[in-house]
Amino acid sequence: MEQADAYMILQTQNSSSLFTKMTFVALSGYDSEEATFPYWFLENVHTLDSLIVEMSSFKKIFQDRGEISEKTHAQIKKLILNELPELQQICEEGCQIDPVLEFLEYLDVDSCSSLINLMPSSVTLNHLTQLEIIKCNGLKYIFTTSTARSLDKLTVLKIKDCNSLEEVITGVENVDIAFNSLEVFKLKCLPNLVKFCSSKCFMKFPLMEEVIVRECPRMKIFSAGNTSTPLLQKVKIAKNDEEWLWQGNLNDTIYNMFQDKEGFDGLEHLFSL
């Protein structure tokens, strides 16, 4: 639905009656510099559970604390943000988005190059099961430790082509973080990623069986703290299914990958002289 279509619907008498059974909305083409997200959808589409926002110039999705009022009944389970080059924040710190995103299960953010913050530290994502972040070159981290502790149901985490990303989890707290449901974890083409978590958190991944780490040349270790991965026995390091590596634990495996990369680069430089 483009901006002109949304405006026409808004001007329709008894427009709220048009949305009584709508579960999915795609917003596209809000490309003016002054474009703001049409919050009235959230107040009128009570049955909305899937939202796509793409090819628009929004700087924020959920903009102000007061914008999401007590009238809002939508509970979004699937949120896709695609090709939003001006988007800086999904919502501000302190934004009261819990009524809308409390039951969010699927989040896909692609080609949002100005995004500097995925979610405020105050936000919990207790129902999130799948997260995919691609080509978001403004992000330096994905979660704070407080948000990460709420990801009990996350089963799939994929991060790719984020050139500025330095860590996935940031924070100073030395706390336990349990990813009790995470099974698939992929990090690809992250040239500035140093580690998954920089604080000395003890992290548990009881169900994780598949880890892919590829083209992360600065990643020396997985985490500054200890990590428990009882089912994990290998890390995929190349496109083909032949190249896997395991050195007894995740930190040693990542360090070995880094050392091999350093050695290969040294040889490559030597033979190019």
SSE topology:
Elements: H1 3-11, E1 24-28, H2 40-44, E2 50-54, E3 60-62, E4 78-82, E5 89-91, H3 98-101, E6 106-110, E7 130-134, E8 143-144, H4 145-148, E9 156-160, E10 167-170, E11 176-178, E12 184-188, E13 195-197, E14 202-204, E15 210-214, E16 227-228, E17 235-236, E18 244-245, H5 250-272
Parallel strand pairs: 1-2, 2-4, 3-5, 4-6, 6-7, 7-9, 8-10, 9-12, 10-13, 11-14, 12-15, 14-16, 15-17
Antiparallel strand pairs: 17-18
How do you describe this structure in short?
Residues 10-137 form the Disease resistance protein At4g27190-like leucine-rich repeats domain. This protein is an alpha/beta fold.
- Secondary-structure-based class equals alpha/beta
| Strand order in the largest sheet | 1-2-4-6-7-9-12-15-17-18
The helicity comes to 10-25%
What is the N-to-C succession of helices and strands? Answer: HEHEEEEHEEEHEEEEEEEEEEH
Task: Tell me the β content.
Answer: 15-25%
When the domains are counted, the total is: 2
Question: Counting H and I runs of at least 4 residues, what is the number of helices?
Answer: 5
What's the main sheet like?
10 strands, mixed
Average pLDDT confidence is: 82
Name the shape in a single word: globular
